């Protein structure tokens, strides 16, 4: 099968879609602070089934359910560090069990653990050292489980990105770095070109780009990411609907027709995030030619 980096160099790879919406559609309550990570302990088979649905739709890469999982979050539920490390590792094992394909271990932002929307603002008031201390232990736990790649995703600002890159020093698993953006800025307000440029000299980062943003913002960001980083681009936006008054509003704008433009502009990892399900990933995979 070769390495993930070799597969990436050989041609575009199709990512999965939103894990949480697939779980919710299957009837699972994700209102807990741990979000989909709660099911790592309570119903692991549900997570495997969600991954399997995306593989069946043509996804080649499964992103694990560890986005909102952390030692701190599990501790609030009375879960000790040893068991928490095992649950983080389980997220990789469940994705691996879902079928043939690559496994990307999700490393979500610090703000996701707060469960208060901070991942869409950044600027947590923590030092870089504190962010390194938060990220490094769970990165180590995920790496120990043997993923093919680490998906450092939905990062809202350059300060946290710099901290995560520092936390990744010495890690031999390849990494993609993906920012959450609004327009041409990170969620914290920095120019996206500055954010993408952080990856230019990071040897372990094999792709840089965006996720959990509108498809329209993703279109322009792919071009900027390719220029600023000189690396392959990862892009997996939301459906295009907006979250307002505790409900999804508007019409989806995620279209497989966008993929040709992403690929032409330098994307090599393409998929979907919130509200993008197996049906859309099937259409995307067909557009890629898989």
From TrEMBL:
PANTHER family: HOMOCYSTEINE S-METHYLTRANSFERASE-LIKE ISOFORM 1 (PTHR46015:SF1), ZGC:172121 (PTHR46015). InterPro entries: BHMT-like (IPR017226), HCY_dom (IPR003726), HCY_dom_sf (IPR036589), Hcy_S-methyltransferase (IPR051486). Pfam families: S-methyl_trans. The keyword Transferase applies. Its cofactor is Zn(2+). GO terms for molecular function: S-adenosylmethionine-homocysteine S-methyltransferase activity; zinc ion binding. This is S-methylmethionine-dependent homocysteine/selenocysteine methylase. Zn(2+) binds at residues 212, 273-274. Binds 1 zinc ion per subunit. GO terms for biological process: methionine biosynthetic process; methylation; S-methylmethionine cycle. Keywords: Metal-binding, Methyltransferase, Transferase, Zinc. Residues 1-288 form the Hcy-binding domain.
């Amino acid at each position: 099968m070769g390495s993930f980096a070799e597969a990436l160099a050989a041609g575009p790879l199709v990512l999965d879609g939103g894990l949480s919406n697939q779980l919710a559609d299957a009837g699972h309550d994700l209102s807990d602070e741990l979000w989909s990570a709660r099911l790592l302990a309570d119903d692991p088979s549900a997570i495997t089934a969600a991954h399997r649905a995306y593989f069946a739709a043509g996804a080649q890469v499964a992103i694990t359910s560890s986005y909102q999982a952390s030692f701190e979050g599990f501790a609030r539920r009375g879960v000790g560090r040893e068991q928490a490390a095992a649950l983080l590792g389980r997220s990789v094992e469940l994705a691996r069990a879902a079928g043939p394909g690559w496994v990307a271990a999700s490393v979500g932002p610090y703000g996701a653990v707060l469960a208060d929307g901070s991942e869409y603002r950044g600027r947590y008031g923590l030092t870089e050292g504190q962010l390194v201390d938060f990220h490094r232990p769970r990165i180590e736990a995920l790496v120990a489980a043997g993923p093919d790649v680490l998906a450092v995703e939905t990062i809202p600002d350059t300060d946290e990105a710099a901290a995560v890159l520092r936390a990744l020093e010495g890690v031999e698993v390849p990494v993609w770095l993906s920012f959450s953006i609004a327009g041409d800025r990170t969620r914290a307000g920095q120019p996206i070109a500055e954010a993408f440029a952080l990856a230019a000299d990071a040897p372990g980062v094999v792709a840089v780009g965006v996720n959990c943003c509108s498809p329209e913002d993703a279109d322009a960001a792919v071009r900027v990411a390719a220029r600023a980083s000189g690396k392959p681009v990862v892009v997996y936006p939301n459906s295009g609907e907006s979250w307002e008054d505790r409900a999804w509003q508007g019409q989806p704008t995620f279209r497989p027709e966008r993929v040709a433009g992403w690929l032409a502009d330098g994307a090599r990892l393409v998929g979907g995030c919130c509200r993008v399900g197996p049906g859309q990933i099937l259409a995307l995979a067909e557009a890629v030619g898989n």
